[in-house]
Amino acid sequence: MDPLTLKPNRLKNILLRCLSLAVLIIAVRFAFFIAIRGQSCVAGDDFCLFNVRHVSSVAVKPEKYVDYYASVFQDLIAEGYLSPKSNSLCIETPTGEEVHALKRIGVSESIGISKRASPPLVLRGQAWKHPFKGNTFDFEFSSGLDRSGFPAEFGSEICRTLKSGGFLVVHVAPKDEYSFQSFLDLFNCMRWINSREIDGPDSSTTIQEIVMKKERQSFNSGDKCSVSELKREIIRNAEPLIKQEPLKPWITLKRNIRNIKYLTSMVDISFKRKYVYIDVGARSYGSSIGSWFKKQYPKQNKSFEIYAIEADKAFHEEYKMKKSVKLLPYAAWIRNETLFFEITRDPQKQDAMQKSRGMGRIHPVQSSVNYVKDVDKIQGFDLANWLKSVVSDRDFVVMKMDVEGAEFHLIPRLIETGAICLIDEVFLECHYNRWQRCCPGQRSPKYQNTYAQCLDLFNSLRAKGVLVHQWW
Protein backbone atom coordinates (compact mmCIF):
# COMPACT_ATOMS: atom_id res chain seq x y z
CA MET A 1 0.00 0.00 0.00
CA ASP A 2 1.21 3.51 -0.77
CA PRO A 3 2.82 5.07 2.35
CA LEU A 4 1.08 8.33 1.52
CA THR A 5 -2.32 6.72 2.10
CA LEU A 6 -1.26 5.64 5.60
CA LYS A 7 -0.73 9.20 6.87
CA PRO A 8 -4.43 10.22 7.02
CA ASN A 9 -5.33 6.97 8.78
CA ARG A 10 -2.53 7.39 11.30
CA LEU A 11 -3.53 11.00 11.95
CA LYS A 12 -7.15 9.91 12.36
CA ASN A 13 -6.15 7.26 14.95
CA ILE A 14 -4.12 9.80 16.91
CA LEU A 15 -7.04 12.25 17.00
CA LEU A 16 -9.44 9.52 18.15
CA ARG A 17 -7.09 8.51 20.97
CA CYS A 18 -6.69 12.12 22.12
CA LEU A 19 -10.44 12.59 22.09
CA SER A 20 -10.96 9.37 24.09
CA LEU A 21 -8.36 10.48 26.65
CA ALA A 22 -10.10 13.86 27.05
CA VAL A 23 -13.48 12.18 27.59
CA LEU A 24 -11.91 9.86 30.18
CA ILE A 25 -10.34 12.78 32.08
CA ILE A 26 -13.65 14.66 32.16
CA ALA A 27 -15.49 11.53 33.33
CA VAL A 28 -12.98 10.99 36.15
CA ARG A 29 -13.32 14.63 37.18
CA PHE A 30 -17.12 14.42 37.42
CA ALA A 31 -16.96 11.07 39.21
CA PHE A 32 -14.70 12.62 41.85
CA PHE A 33 -16.85 15.67 42.50
CA ILE A 34 -20.22 13.95 42.39
CA ALA A 35 -19.43 10.63 44.10
CA ILE A 36 -16.75 11.75 46.55
CA ARG A 37 -17.45 15.41 47.30
CA GLY A 38 -21.18 15.46 46.63
CA GLN A 39 -21.03 18.77 44.72
CA SER A 40 -20.09 20.32 41.41
CA CYS A 41 -16.82 22.03 40.52
CA VAL A 42 -16.09 25.41 42.08
CA ALA A 43 -13.92 28.04 40.40
CA GLY A 44 -10.34 28.00 41.67
CA ASP A 45 -10.47 24.33 42.73
CA ASP A 46 -7.36 22.34 41.91
CA PHE A 47 -9.45 19.66 40.18
CA CYS A 48 -11.39 22.06 37.95
CA LEU A 49 -10.44 21.64 34.31
CA PHE A 50 -12.30 24.76 33.25
CA ASN A 51 -12.13 28.08 35.02
CA VAL A 52 -15.89 28.58 35.12
CA ARG A 53 -17.69 30.90 37.47
CA HIS A 54 -19.88 28.92 39.94
CA VAL A 55 -23.51 29.93 39.87
CA SER A 56 -25.37 29.16 43.11
CA SER A 57 -28.72 27.46 42.79
CA VAL A 58 -30.18 30.30 44.86
CA ALA A 59 -30.33 32.34 41.69
CA VAL A 60 -32.93 30.10 40.16
CA LYS A 61 -35.22 30.36 43.20
CA PRO A 62 -38.00 32.94 42.96
CA GLU A 63 -37.00 36.19 44.61
CA LYS A 64 -40.21 36.13 46.63
CA TYR A 65 -38.79 33.42 48.93
CA VAL A 66 -35.79 35.58 49.80
CA ASP A 67 -38.09 38.56 50.34
CA TYR A 68 -40.36 36.46 52.55
CA TYR A 69 -37.58 35.22 54.84
CA ALA A 70 -35.99 38.67 54.99
CA SER A 71 -39.31 39.96 56.35
CA VAL A 72 -39.51 37.09 58.87
CA PHE A 73 -35.96 37.72 60.13
CA GLN A 74 -36.53 41.46 60.43
CA ASP A 75 -39.47 40.72 62.74
CA LEU A 76 -37.26 38.41 64.81
CA ILE A 77 -34.64 41.18 65.10
CA ALA A 78 -37.31 43.60 66.29
CA GLU A 79 -38.41 41.05 68.93
CA GLY A 80 -34.85 40.48 70.19
CA TYR A 81 -34.36 36.89 69.06
CA LEU A 82 -31.84 37.77 66.34
CA SER A 83 -29.26 40.51 65.82
CA PRO A 84 -26.87 41.56 63.02
CA LYS A 85 -24.02 40.18 65.15
CA SER A 86 -25.58 36.73 65.57
CA ASN A 87 -23.59 33.78 64.26
CA SER A 88 -26.47 32.07 62.47
CA LEU A 89 -27.21 28.63 61.02
CA CYS A 90 -30.05 27.67 58.68
CA ILE A 91 -30.87 23.94 58.76
CA GLU A 92 -32.28 21.90 55.86
CA THR A 93 -32.05 24.74 53.32
CA PRO A 94 -31.33 23.05 49.95
CA THR A 95 -31.04 26.26 47.94
CA GLY A 96 -30.03 28.70 50.68
CA GLU A 97 -32.72 31.36 50.31
CA GLU A 98 -32.88 31.74 54.12
CA VAL A 99 -29.11 32.37 54.26
CA HIS A 100 -29.40 34.85 51.40
CA ALA A 101 -32.16 36.67 53.29
CA LEU A 102 -30.08 36.86 56.49
CA LYS A 103 -27.12 38.35 54.64
CA ARG A 104 -29.39 40.83 52.86
CA ILE A 105 -30.62 42.30 56.17
CA GLY A 106 -27.10 42.54 57.59
CA VAL A 107 -26.59 39.23 59.46
CA SER A 108 -23.31 38.57 57.70
CA GLU A 109 -22.12 35.56 59.73
CA SER A 110 -24.68 33.16 58.30
CA ILE A 111 -24.38 29.72 56.77
CA GLY A 112 -26.74 26.90 55.80
CA ILE A 113 -26.55 23.11 55.73
CA SER A 114 -28.34 20.59 53.53
CA LYS A 115 -27.88 17.05 52.27
CA ARG A 116 -26.30 18.49 49.10
CA ALA A 117 -23.95 21.42 49.30
CA SER A 118 -24.69 24.60 47.36
CA PRO A 119 -21.64 26.88 47.77
CA PRO A 120 -21.05 29.45 48.90
CA LEU A 121 -24.20 29.68 51.07
CA VAL A 122 -24.88 26.02 51.91
CA LEU A 123 -22.49 23.38 53.22
CA ARG A 124 -23.03 19.67 53.20
CA GLY A 125 -24.65 18.47 56.44
CA GLN A 126 -27.92 17.17 57.86
CA ALA A 127 -30.34 18.17 60.60
CA TRP A 128 -29.13 15.29 62.75
CA LYS A 129 -25.41 15.77 61.96
CA HIS A 130 -24.03 19.32 61.86
CA PRO A 131 -20.46 19.77 60.55
CA PHE A 132 -19.61 22.23 63.36
CA LYS A 133 -18.18 22.22 66.87
CA GLY A 134 -20.44 22.51 69.91
CA ASN A 135 -21.74 25.90 71.12
CA THR A 136 -21.04 27.60 67.79
CA PHE A 137 -24.22 29.52 66.93
CA ASP A 138 -26.27 32.29 68.54
CA PHE A 139 -29.26 31.66 66.30
CA GLU A 140 -30.55 28.62 64.41
CA PHE A 141 -33.47 28.49 62.01
CA SER A 142 -35.23 25.80 60.01
CA SER A 143 -38.33 25.51 57.91
CA GLY A 144 -37.77 21.82 57.13
CA LEU A 145 -37.41 19.97 60.45
CA ASP A 146 -40.89 18.46 60.22
CA ARG A 147 -39.78 16.75 56.97
CA SER A 148 -36.54 15.38 58.43
CA GLY A 149 -36.02 11.90 59.79
CA PHE A 150 -34.44 11.06 63.15
CA PRO A 151 -36.39 13.60 65.28
CA ALA A 152 -34.58 12.74 68.53
CA GLU A 153 -31.18 13.10 66.85
CA PHE A 154 -31.88 16.52 65.34
CA GLY A 155 -33.15 17.70 68.74
CA SER A 156 -29.93 16.72 70.50
CA GLU A 157 -27.75 18.02 67.63
CA ILE A 158 -29.32 21.46 67.78
CA CYS A 159 -28.79 21.45 71.55
CA ARG A 160 -25.12 20.67 70.87
CA THR A 161 -24.35 23.39 68.32
CA LEU A 162 -26.50 26.22 69.75
CA LYS A 163 -24.88 28.40 72.41
CA SER A 164 -26.42 28.73 75.84
CA GLY A 165 -28.82 31.67 75.66
CA GLY A 166 -29.16 31.26 71.89
CA PHE A 167 -32.49 31.06 70.07
CA LEU A 168 -33.98 28.38 67.86
CA VAL A 169 -36.79 29.37 65.50
CA VAL A 170 -38.60 26.76 63.43
CA HIS A 171 -41.40 26.91 60.89
CA VAL A 172 -43.65 23.83 60.78
CA ALA A 173 -47.02 23.02 59.29
CA PRO A 174 -49.76 23.62 61.88
CA LYS A 175 -50.91 20.37 63.45
CA ASP A 176 -52.72 19.35 66.63
CA GLU A 177 -51.73 20.28 70.18
CA TYR A 178 -50.39 16.77 70.87
CA SER A 179 -47.96 17.04 67.95
CA PHE A 180 -46.89 20.51 69.09
CA GLN A 181 -46.09 19.30 72.61
CA SER A 182 -44.25 16.26 71.24
CA PHE A 183 -42.11 18.59 69.13
CA LEU A 184 -41.19 20.72 72.15
CA ASP A 185 -40.27 17.60 74.14
CA LEU A 186 -37.54 16.78 71.59
CA PHE A 187 -35.47 19.72 72.85
CA ASN A 188 -34.74 19.02 76.51
CA CYS A 189 -32.18 21.85 76.60
CA MET A 190 -34.73 24.42 75.48
CA ARG A 191 -37.35 26.61 77.08
CA TRP A 192 -40.37 27.42 74.96
CA ILE A 193 -40.73 31.19 74.42
CA ASN A 194 -43.45 31.81 71.90
CA SER A 195 -45.46 30.33 69.05
CA ARG A 196 -47.82 31.88 66.53
CA GLU A 197 -49.36 31.28 63.16
CA ILE A 198 -48.07 33.42 60.30
CA ASP A 199 -48.61 33.54 56.55
CA GLY A 200 -46.37 31.28 54.50
CA PRO A 201 -44.38 32.21 51.37
CA ASP A 202 -47.50 31.49 49.37
CA SER A 203 -50.57 33.41 50.46
CA SER A 204 -52.58 30.19 50.53
CA THR A 205 -50.42 28.54 53.24
CA THR A 206 -50.19 29.06 56.99
CA ILE A 207 -47.04 28.42 59.01
CA GLN A 208 -46.61 27.82 62.74
CA GLU A 209 -43.57 29.70 64.02
CA ILE A 210 -42.04 28.34 67.24
CA VAL A 211 -39.37 30.20 69.24
CA MET A 212 -37.24 28.43 71.88
CA LYS A 213 -34.25 29.49 73.97
CA LYS A 214 -31.39 27.26 75.09
CA GLU A 215 -30.91 27.26 78.85
CA ARG A 216 -28.00 25.99 80.91
CA GLN A 217 -30.36 23.69 82.80
CA SER A 218 -31.80 20.67 81.01
CA PHE A 219 -35.54 20.44 81.26
CA ASN A 220 -36.85 16.92 81.73
CA SER A 221 -40.45 16.20 82.53
CA GLY A 222 -39.89 12.46 82.90
CA ASP A 223 -40.62 12.48 86.64
CA LYS A 224 -43.70 14.65 86.32
CA CYS A 225 -47.17 13.32 85.80
CA SER A 226 -49.27 16.41 85.37
CA VAL A 227 -52.64 16.15 83.67
CA SER A 228 -52.71 18.81 80.99
CA GLU A 229 -55.84 20.19 79.38
CA LEU A 230 -54.70 18.42 76.21
CA LYS A 231 -54.87 15.03 77.94
CA ARG A 232 -58.27 15.86 79.38
CA GLU A 233 -59.52 16.79 75.93
CA ILE A 234 -58.27 13.52 74.44
CA ILE A 235 -60.01 11.50 77.17
CA ARG A 236 -63.23 13.46 76.69
CA ASN A 237 -63.13 12.47 73.00
CA ALA A 238 -62.50 8.79 73.79
CA GLU A 239 -65.22 6.16 73.87
CA PRO A 240 -67.09 6.14 77.21
CA LEU A 241 -66.47 3.40 79.75
CA ILE A 242 -69.20 0.81 80.18
CA LYS A 243 -70.67 1.86 83.53
CA GLN A 244 -73.18 -0.95 83.96
CA GLU A 245 -71.84 -4.46 84.53
CA PRO A 246 -72.71 -6.50 81.43
CA LEU A 247 -74.78 -9.62 81.94
CA LYS A 248 -73.01 -11.25 79.00
CA PRO A 249 -69.49 -9.79 79.20
CA TRP A 250 -68.14 -12.23 76.62
CA ILE A 251 -70.42 -10.46 74.10
CA THR A 252 -70.58 -6.86 75.38
CA LEU A 253 -66.86 -6.32 75.94
CA LYS A 254 -65.91 -7.99 72.68
CA ARG A 255 -68.30 -5.77 70.75
CA ASN A 256 -66.94 -2.72 72.55
CA ILE A 257 -63.62 -3.14 70.73
CA ARG A 258 -65.35 -1.77 67.63
CA ASN A 259 -66.14 1.45 69.52
CA ILE A 260 -62.55 2.15 70.55
CA LYS A 261 -61.15 5.52 69.50
CA TYR A 262 -57.45 4.94 69.05
CA LEU A 263 -55.14 7.75 70.10
CA THR A 264 -53.42 7.64 66.72
CA SER A 265 -56.77 8.32 65.04
CA MET A 266 -57.09 11.57 67.05
CA VAL A 267 -53.57 13.05 67.09
CA ASP A 268 -50.38 13.21 65.02
CA ILE A 269 -47.41 11.28 66.48
CA SER A 270 -44.70 12.38 64.03
CA PHE A 271 -42.42 14.08 66.55
CA LYS A 272 -41.80 11.17 68.90
CA ARG A 273 -38.31 9.80 69.47
CA LYS A 274 -39.33 6.17 69.02
CA TYR A 275 -42.47 4.04 68.97
CA VAL A 276 -42.93 1.12 71.36
CA TYR A 277 -45.62 -1.54 71.84
CA ILE A 278 -45.51 -3.61 75.06
CA ASP A 279 -47.74 -6.67 75.35
CA VAL A 280 -47.94 -7.67 79.02
CA GLY A 281 -49.33 -11.18 79.17
CA ALA A 282 -48.77 -11.71 75.45
CA ARG A 283 -49.43 -15.48 75.29
CA SER A 284 -48.84 -16.65 71.68
CA TYR A 285 -47.73 -14.34 68.88
CA GLY A 286 -51.10 -14.66 67.17
CA SER A 287 -53.06 -13.94 70.34
CA SER A 288 -52.81 -10.15 70.00
CA ILE A 289 -49.47 -9.07 68.49
CA GLY A 290 -49.97 -10.74 65.13
CA SER A 291 -53.75 -10.72 64.93
CA TRP A 292 -54.50 -7.27 66.33
CA PHE A 293 -51.54 -4.91 66.78
CA LYS A 294 -49.74 -5.76 63.55
CA LYS A 295 -52.90 -5.76 61.43
CA GLN A 296 -55.38 -3.39 63.04
CA TYR A 297 -53.72 -0.78 65.25
CA PRO A 298 -53.31 2.49 63.25
CA LYS A 299 -49.57 3.20 63.32
CA GLN A 300 -49.34 6.27 61.01
CA ASN A 301 -46.64 4.41 59.01
CA LYS A 302 -44.31 4.30 62.01
CA SER A 303 -42.13 1.30 62.87
CA PHE A 304 -42.71 0.08 66.41
CA GLU A 305 -40.36 -1.77 68.74
CA ILE A 306 -42.38 -4.70 70.10
CA TYR A 307 -41.91 -6.34 73.51
CA ALA A 308 -43.75 -9.52 74.50
CA ILE A 309 -43.85 -10.18 78.25
CA GLU A 310 -44.96 -13.77 78.85
CA ALA A 311 -44.11 -16.07 81.76
CA ASP A 312 -45.67 -19.24 80.34
CA LYS A 313 -42.86 -21.39 78.96
CA ALA A 314 -45.25 -23.02 76.48
CA PHE A 315 -45.14 -19.91 74.30
CA HIS A 316 -41.41 -19.10 74.46
CA GLU A 317 -40.27 -21.35 71.61
CA GLU A 318 -42.56 -19.60 69.11
CA TYR A 319 -40.96 -16.20 69.74
CA LYS A 320 -37.52 -17.48 68.73
CA MET A 321 -38.79 -17.30 65.15
CA LYS A 322 -40.17 -13.77 65.55
CA LYS A 323 -37.10 -11.58 65.10
CA SER A 324 -39.16 -8.38 65.24
CA VAL A 325 -40.38 -9.16 68.78
CA LYS A 326 -38.28 -8.98 71.94
CA LEU A 327 -39.46 -11.62 74.40
CA LEU A 328 -39.17 -11.09 78.15
CA PRO A 329 -39.78 -14.62 79.53
CA TYR A 330 -40.75 -13.42 83.01
CA ALA A 331 -43.81 -12.38 84.97
CA ALA A 332 -44.59 -8.66 85.16
CA TRP A 333 -44.76 -7.85 88.85
CA ILE A 334 -44.32 -5.09 91.46
CA ARG A 335 -40.78 -6.12 92.44
CA ASN A 336 -38.01 -8.53 91.47
CA GLU A 337 -38.69 -11.85 93.16
CA THR A 338 -39.39 -15.54 92.57
CA LEU A 339 -43.09 -16.37 92.16
CA PHE A 340 -45.41 -19.30 91.64
CA PHE A 341 -46.95 -19.26 88.16
CA GLU A 342 -50.23 -21.11 88.08
CA ILE A 343 -51.86 -22.56 84.96
CA THR A 344 -55.57 -23.16 85.65
CA ARG A 345 -57.89 -25.32 83.57
CA ASP A 346 -61.50 -26.25 83.78
CA PRO A 347 -61.56 -29.99 84.68
CA GLN A 348 -64.38 -30.48 82.16
CA LYS A 349 -61.86 -29.69 79.39
CA GLN A 350 -59.19 -32.22 80.35
CA ASP A 351 -59.25 -33.78 76.89
CA ALA A 352 -58.09 -30.52 75.36
CA MET A 353 -55.12 -30.10 77.68
CA GLN A 354 -52.62 -31.29 75.12
CA LYS A 355 -53.92 -28.89 72.49
CA SER A 356 -53.99 -25.61 74.37
CA ARG A 357 -52.80 -23.94 77.50
CA GLY A 358 -55.01 -22.55 80.20
CA MET A 359 -54.75 -18.97 81.43
CA GLY A 360 -51.67 -18.37 83.57
CA ARG A 361 -51.61 -16.11 86.61
CA ILE A 362 -49.26 -15.18 89.39
CA HIS A 363 -50.29 -16.83 92.63
CA PRO A 364 -48.11 -17.02 95.74
CA VAL A 365 -50.06 -19.93 97.26
CA GLN A 366 -52.04 -22.87 95.90
CA SER A 367 -55.53 -22.44 97.27
CA SER A 368 -58.14 -23.31 94.64
CA VAL A 369 -59.88 -26.68 94.62
CA ASN A 370 -62.13 -25.98 91.65
CA TYR A 371 -59.43 -26.01 89.01
CA VAL A 372 -56.60 -28.27 87.99
CA LYS A 373 -53.29 -26.49 88.32
CA ASP A 374 -49.80 -26.73 86.88
CA VAL A 375 -47.48 -24.68 89.07
CA ASP A 376 -44.01 -23.50 88.08
CA LYS A 377 -41.51 -21.33 89.87
CA ILE A 378 -40.74 -18.32 87.72
CA GLN A 379 -38.90 -15.02 88.01
CA GLY A 380 -40.99 -11.89 88.46
CA PHE A 381 -39.58 -8.46 87.61
CA ASP A 382 -40.50 -4.90 88.55
CA LEU A 383 -42.49 -3.75 85.50
CA ALA A 384 -42.46 -0.08 86.56
CA ASN A 385 -38.68 0.13 86.99
CA TRP A 386 -38.09 -1.77 83.74
CA LEU A 387 -40.42 0.57 81.86
CA LYS A 388 -38.55 3.63 83.15
CA SER A 389 -35.27 2.12 81.96
CA VAL A 390 -36.52 1.38 78.43
CA VAL A 391 -38.64 4.39 77.40
CA SER A 392 -38.87 8.10 78.12
CA ASP A 393 -41.55 10.77 77.94
CA ARG A 394 -40.31 11.58 74.42
CA ASP A 395 -41.39 8.15 73.15
CA PHE A 396 -44.82 6.97 72.02
CA VAL A 397 -45.74 3.94 74.12
CA VAL A 398 -48.73 1.61 73.70
CA MET A 399 -49.38 -1.13 76.26
CA LYS A 400 -51.79 -4.06 76.26
CA MET A 401 -52.22 -5.75 79.63
CA ASP A 402 -53.88 -9.11 80.22
CA VAL A 403 -52.41 -10.52 83.44
CA GLU A 404 -55.22 -12.55 84.98
CA GLY A 405 -55.90 -10.31 87.98
CA ALA A 406 -52.38 -9.01 88.62
CA GLU A 407 -53.50 -5.66 87.18
CA PHE A 408 -54.81 -4.77 90.66
CA HIS A 409 -51.19 -4.84 91.81
CA LEU A 410 -49.42 -3.57 88.68
CA ILE A 411 -51.53 -0.48 87.93
CA PRO A 412 -51.18 1.06 91.44
CA ARG A 413 -47.43 0.39 91.25
CA LEU A 414 -47.18 2.13 87.86
CA ILE A 415 -49.09 5.12 89.25
CA GLU A 416 -47.06 5.26 92.47
CA THR A 417 -43.70 5.27 90.65
CA GLY A 418 -44.80 7.71 87.93
CA ALA A 419 -44.08 5.09 85.26
CA ILE A 420 -47.70 5.35 84.15
CA CYS A 421 -46.87 8.80 82.76
CA LEU A 422 -44.64 7.17 80.14
CA ILE A 423 -47.55 5.23 78.61
CA ASP A 424 -49.66 7.04 76.01
CA GLU A 425 -52.35 4.42 75.50
CA VAL A 426 -53.39 1.31 77.48
CA PHE A 427 -55.59 -1.61 76.45
CA LEU A 428 -56.51 -3.27 79.74
CA GLU A 429 -58.43 -6.47 80.33
CA CYS A 430 -59.70 -6.29 83.88
CA HIS A 431 -60.51 -9.62 85.55
CA TYR A 432 -63.41 -9.90 87.99
CA ASN A 433 -66.01 -12.40 89.20
CA ARG A 434 -68.02 -12.12 86.01
CA TRP A 435 -71.16 -14.02 85.16
CA GLN A 436 -70.33 -17.41 83.73
CA ARG A 437 -71.25 -18.35 80.20
CA CYS A 438 -71.72 -21.98 81.11
CA CYS A 439 -73.84 -21.49 84.20
CA PRO A 440 -76.52 -18.75 84.14
CA GLY A 441 -76.83 -16.91 87.45
CA GLN A 442 -73.41 -18.04 88.70
CA ARG A 443 -70.24 -15.97 88.94
CA SER A 444 -66.74 -17.19 88.21
CA PRO A 445 -64.94 -18.30 91.39
CA LYS A 446 -61.55 -17.65 89.81
CA TYR A 447 -61.41 -13.93 90.73
CA GLN A 448 -62.56 -12.11 93.85
CA ASN A 449 -62.61 -8.55 92.48
CA THR A 450 -65.90 -7.03 91.32
CA TYR A 451 -66.85 -5.11 88.19
CA ALA A 452 -67.12 -1.96 90.31
CA GLN A 453 -63.46 -2.37 91.33
CA CYS A 454 -62.52 -2.76 87.68
CA LEU A 455 -64.38 0.43 86.87
CA ASP A 456 -62.49 2.23 89.66
CA LEU A 457 -59.23 1.04 88.09
CA PHE A 458 -60.19 2.43 84.66
CA ASN A 459 -61.38 5.73 86.17
CA SER A 460 -58.14 6.14 88.16
CA LEU A 461 -56.10 5.78 84.96
CA ARG A 462 -58.19 8.28 83.02
CA ALA A 463 -57.98 10.68 85.97
CA LYS A 464 -54.18 10.46 85.63
CA GLY A 465 -54.46 11.49 81.99
CA VAL A 466 -53.89 7.97 80.59
CA LEU A 467 -56.07 6.96 77.67
CA VAL A 468 -57.20 3.49 78.74
CA HIS A 469 -59.62 1.23 76.89
CA GLN A 470 -61.66 -1.69 78.18
CA TRP A 471 -60.15 -4.76 76.52
CA TRP A 472 -61.53 -8.23 76.03
Q: What report would you give on this structure?
A:
With 472 residues, this protein is of the alpha/beta class. Helix content is 29%, strand content 22%. It has helices at residues 3-36, 63-78, 97-104, 151-161, 177-185, 229-237, 249-256, 289-293, 316-319, 383-390, 407-417, 451-463, and strands at residues 88-91, 110-114, 122-124, 137-142, 162-172, 190-199, 206-214, 275-280, 305-309, 325-328, 331-333, 337-345, 359-362, 372-382, 396-401, 425-428, 467-470. α2 crosses α3 (97-104). The longest helix is centred in the N-terminal third of the chain and has 34 residues, at 3-36. Mean pLDDT is 83; it is low at 33-60, 219-223, 345-358 and 365-372.
Break the fold down into its secondary structure elements and pairings.
Layout (H helix, E strand, L loop, with lengths): L2 H34 L26 H16 L9 E4 L5 H8 L5 E5 L7 E3 L12 E6 L8 H11 E11 L4 H9 L4 E10 L6 E9 L14 H9 L11 H8 L18 E6 L8 H5 L11 E5 L6 H4 L5 E4 L2 E3 L3 E9 L13 E4 L9 E11 H8 L5 E6 L5 H11 L7 E4 L22 H13 L3 E4 L2
Parallel strand pairs: 1-2, 1-4, 2-3, 4-5, 8-9, 8-15, 9-10, 11-14, 15-16, 16-17
Antiparallel strand pairs: 5-7, 6-7, 12-13, 12-14
Helix pairs in contact: 2-3
Look at the helices and sheets and give the structural class: alpha/beta
User: Treating each run of at least 4 consecutive H or I residues as one helix, how many helices?
Assistant: 12
Q: How is the quaternary structure best described?
A: single chain
Mean of all residue-level pLDDT scores = 83
H/E topology pattern: HHEHEEEHEHEEHHEHEHEEEEEHEHEHE
- Please state the overall shape, judged from the principal axes of the Cα atoms: elongated
Distance between the termini: 98 Å
